[in-house]
Write a structure and sequence with these properties.
Elements (H helix, E strand, L loop, with lengths): L1 E4 L4 E4 L9 E2 L4 E2 L2 H15 L4 E2 L8 E4 L20 H6 L4 H8 L8 H10 L4 H4 L2 E4 H10 L4 E2 H5 L13 H7 L8 E2 L4 E5 L2 E4 L5 H7 L8 E6 L3 E7 L6 H6 L2 E4 L5 E7 L3 H12 L6 H9 L21 H11 L8 H27 L5 E5 L6 H11 L3 E3 L4 H13 L6 H11 L3 E3 L4 H12 L4
Helix pairs in contact: 9-16, 12-14, 14-15
């Protein structure tokens, strides 16, 4: 993305888009970071002159470098099954509650902590050869600038960053057997160096961290939903919440920009939809996202429900078959068509958003009057309306390119073009096309919610 800023609005221009395709070897599912690096440099060349460069991407995964600064191996994808059983192995070495009290991070089996634990458990030689660990965004920043650092919002997703100190938690690393390979943590907004004469600035390098910066909210009592392959529903707070209720609810306190915390939960999101679409396309049914939404709107919405975060939906594969198998095992009506199946996914996602929002409100004590949906999923009008119906609150959708916008905002603040996030959000609320969805059919949505709750573990 290239951007321009005239003092009143940010304009984004796509100059180079490329797929991020994992590679399955006989042993592991990997990220192809060499291909991604090549595409990044192509994109930078297409932009030409720029005031600054900022990189953001997903969290939890990492790369290992040797003593010469060379990449030891293509990073393993967080959806690879190597982390099966790694959480239990870890808790034998440090109690689950102690890890939460130190990090405040939601327990997910693919977190960086458990990826490292799996490598140690399985005797991987890479950790013995490594001298530096970098998150994926930090790997690209290193290749751009030579700076071996870990940006704070990315570091927190590893579940190895201490929520009280903002630094790596050496006690957890020692208990698990992780060697001293963690790069120094730097704050979002830090200048890392330069690439061919252009400053490289660390935005909130975790993509959700950047997306939250671009939530166009100008008042309190709001929640956000970063909607994409993953859905991340939460609130922006000034301090982590680490008590009994937070632990029991398995919430997360990821780092945010300007010393904030992203108090949220990860939800499976549109991954299930994406995998259904890919499976149907392979079978000759190439549905567009608009077609899928129209199909879902054409059938009864409450016939079939699923738990989107059931582990059976985590790995890539034939998702329609997995949905049908899930319904059979859990006493749900079997979808009779692709339309009924995709409707079940959308409705269930909306209900999961309600469930998580209610949890976050209960744990935090925060009032929520409306929900801002940002990211690519904000363009899904049907799911936005279903979400408003399910939560019983207005939903405000947009911007769709929240991650790129938030990345740009941090860069603009770093170079002095914007004062702070509050000024940026006020600007976005005036200059961004936002869509309002008011709740509808409350009685019907409330009546079927108990059925959804019965599916939760």
């Amino acid at each position: 993305m290239d951007l321009s800023f005239d003092g009143r609005a940010i304009a984004l221009h796509e100059v180079h888009r490329f797929p991020n395709i994992p590679v399955q070897t006989p042993q592991r599912l990997h990220w192809d970071v060499l291909r991604l690096w090549q595409e990044i440099t192509v994109g930078i060349e297409k932009v030409g002159d720029a005031a600054a460069i900022g990189v953001d991407c997903w969290g939890v995964d990492y790369a290992l470098l040797d003593s010469a600064g060379e990449l030891l191996a293509n990073p393993v994808h967080y959806r690879d099954p190597r982390t099966n059983g790694a959480m239990e192995w870890t808790f034998d070495r440090m109690p689950r509650r102690e890890i939460f009290d130190r990090t405040g991070i939601q327990f997910l089996q693919f977190n960086g902590l458990f990826q490292l634990a799996a490598s140690i458990r399985d005797g991987s030689p890479l950790l013995e050869q490594a001298t530096t660990l970098l998150t994926i965004a930090d790997l690209f920043n290193y290749w751009l600038t030579g700076s071996k650092t870990c940006e704070y919002t990315e570091a927190t997703t590893m579940q190895l960053c201490n929520a009280h100190t903002g630094d790596w938690d050496r006690a957890i690393a020692a208990a698990i057997g992780i060697p001293d390979i963690m790069a120094p943590i730097v704050p979002p907004g830090a200048k890392l160096g330069s690439y061919r004469g252009t400053d490289v600035i660390a935005p909130a390098c975790h993509d959700t961290g950047s997306a939250v910066v671009a939530v166009p909210a100008t008042s309190d009592n709001v929640a956000y939903l970063s909607s994409g392959t993953w859905s991340l529903l939460g609130m922006e707070l000034n301090a982590p919440i680490l008590g009994d209720a937070a632990y029991a609810t398995n919430v997360t306190n990821e780092g945010g920009y300007e010393n904030t915390y992203r108090f949220l939960k990860n939800i499976m999101g549109l991954w299930v939809v994406d995998q259904c679409r890919a499976t149907w396309k392979a079978a000759g049914k190439d549905y567009s996202f608009d077609q899928l939404a129209a199909m879902a709107a054409s059938v009864h919405p409450f016939k079939t429900l699923i738990e989107p975060d059931d582990p059976t939906f985590l790995a890539p594969g034939d998702m329609p078959a997995r949905v049908i198998d899930y319904c059979r095992k859990h006493g749900q009506a079997i979808p009779a068509s692709d339309a009924e199946l995709i409707a079940a996914v959308y409705v269930s996602l909306a209900y999961k958003y309600r469930y998580v929002l209610e949890q976050l409100i209960a744990v935090s004590g925060q009032k929520v009057d409306r929900l801002h949906i940002i990211g690519g999923g904000s363009k899904n009008a049907l799911l936005n309306q279903m979400t408003a119906n399910a939560i019983g609150r207005p939903v405000i959708a947009g911007p769709a390119e929240a991650t790129a916008t938030g990345n740009a905002i941090v860069q603009l603040i770093a170079i002095g073009e914007l004062r702070d996030v509050a000024e940026a959000r006020a600007m976005l609320s005036e200059s961004t096309e936002l869509v309002l969805f008011e709740p509808m059919n409350k009685a019907a949505w409330d009546a079927n919610y108990e059925r959804f709750l019965d599916l939760l573990p």
